[in-house]
Design goal:
five-stranded parallel beta sheet; dTMP kinase activity; Thymidylate kinase; binds ligand Z5A; 5 strands; 8 helices; Thymidylate_kin_CS; globular; Thymidylate_kin-like_dom; nucleotide-binding
Length: about 200
Amino acid sequence: MFISFEGTEGVGKTTLIQKLHQHFQQKGIDVVLTREPGGTPLAEQIRSLLLSVNHDEKMANDTELLLMYAARAQHLENVIIPALNAGKVVLCDRFSDSSFAYQCAGRGLSPEKLQLLNQNFVSKMPDITFWLDAPIELGMTRARERGALDRFEQEKVSFFEKVRSGFEHIQQNEPQRMKRLDATQLPEKVFTDALSHLQSLD
Ligand code: Z5A
């Protein structure tokens, strides 16, 4: 099973993934924990490029989109597909829904560009996606206690509001795949909510 986790910054994706990882391991299920952009040595290098604030020029929105998909192609071929073929559960911190939410809804790129990339370079979509939803300010406060901000984290609240509506758009169009979790709740409750969605798939 391929499970992805989405949301704006600081909503608790990493926290939930760690809890589910532990849960699967305790049940003796083979799990791969991975993330985007990144997940392979080469894709992690692309991630550094994408998140760095130390560029001498503004990264073009198309460049950002294409780098996301270059990293994704690498990740799919070298990590996700082999793990799924070996019967493992894949827990992926962000996947192509983030490209729609950030690059299309957030940056304003046309969904047709994304569709083209998905059709040609994404051979496997998640079986289930958890969208952790919380007011932007809440996630920002949680995440920013960590210190230095990356290139995305430097964006304004208005950008993240657009991103959030991008996730909402996907959830409304694909309610079967994308499940909204109320991320304002305690981590334990977010975890049990996720678990009950997974159990309903059995
Ligand atoms: N990006 C993109 O634009 N296009 C794409 O296609 C892809 C990605 C794939 C990097 O992602 C950036 O890449 C991302 C979008 C872009 N930029 N942004 N923003 P990332 O996932 O690495 O970065 P992130 O979203 O900023 O992740 P994060 O800040 O690490 O957030 P998180 O994993 O969702 O949260 P967390 O680390 O689990 O929790 C944050 C803090 O809150 C932490 O102290 C927790 O202990 C606490 N926490 C967690 N859950 C709770 C609850 N329920 N209550 C109270 N406190 C909590």
